[in-house]
Amino acid sequence: MDRQQFWQLIGAAREEASDPDDAEAVARRAASLLAAHPAEEIAAAQQVLWDLMAESYTNPLWAAAHVVNGGCSDDGFDYFRGWLIAQGREVFERTVADPDALAEVPLVRASASDGFELDGEDVLGIASDAHVIATGSQLPAPAFTVRYPPLDPAWDFDFDDPGEMARRLPRLAALHPE
Questions:
Q1: DSSP code per residue over 94-158
Q2: Which end of the chain is more exposed for a tag (fewer CB within 10 A), N or C?
Q3: 132 CB contacts (<8 Å, ≥6 apart)?
């Protein structure tokens, strides 16, 4: 499975999920769809997923997750990126290129007014869940490698600084005033 096929899987899962805005529902549907593929493709999907996680491992996106979720630990950033993957290719790519573009995503706007956290922990287990469904066993170890890029030192500042966040992520900061 390559990146394009992975994004097609996520798109199909979003179309078929009971609620395409619910990352957990998308993850369940994606795992079910992926389970119909050969075990080798399922394992390859795990690598694609972690390649996307590495691609989205940036300070600007972490800062955006911090604003959107009112804080963001290491694990929280993983789960936020899982949520972002569940939103589909277009939202993912636009957001990785410009994290402040999250302010245009309807679910992000809704979370700003309702205060719910955007979390997609279950997305990180799509391939492992699919492998268990398909074969009855866990993914072979190691099914993937991940190499996170170094974080941008220009974004090494206190994410709780509202002035700095407003300067760097003005649209998101406007949705989440202090």
A1: HHHH-GGGGGGSHHHHHHHHH------GGGGGHHHHHHHHHHSSPPPSP-----PPPP-GGG-S-
A2: C
A3: 138
User: pLDDT value at position 65?
Assistant: 98
Burial 47-70 (b: 16+ CB within 10 A, else e): bbbbbbbebbbbbbbbbbbbbbbe
Neighbours of 121 (CB within 10 A): 16
- In degrees, rounded to 5, the angle at the alpha carbon of residue 74 between the alpha carbons of residues 173 and 116 is 50
Of 80, 79, 100, 101, the residue nearest 90 (C-alpha): 101
pLDDT tens digits, 17-52: 999 999 999 999 999 999 999 999 999 999 999 999
Q: Secondary structure of 27-67 in the HEC alphabet?
A: HHHHHHHHCCCCHHHHHHHHHHHHHHHHHCCCHHHHHHHHH
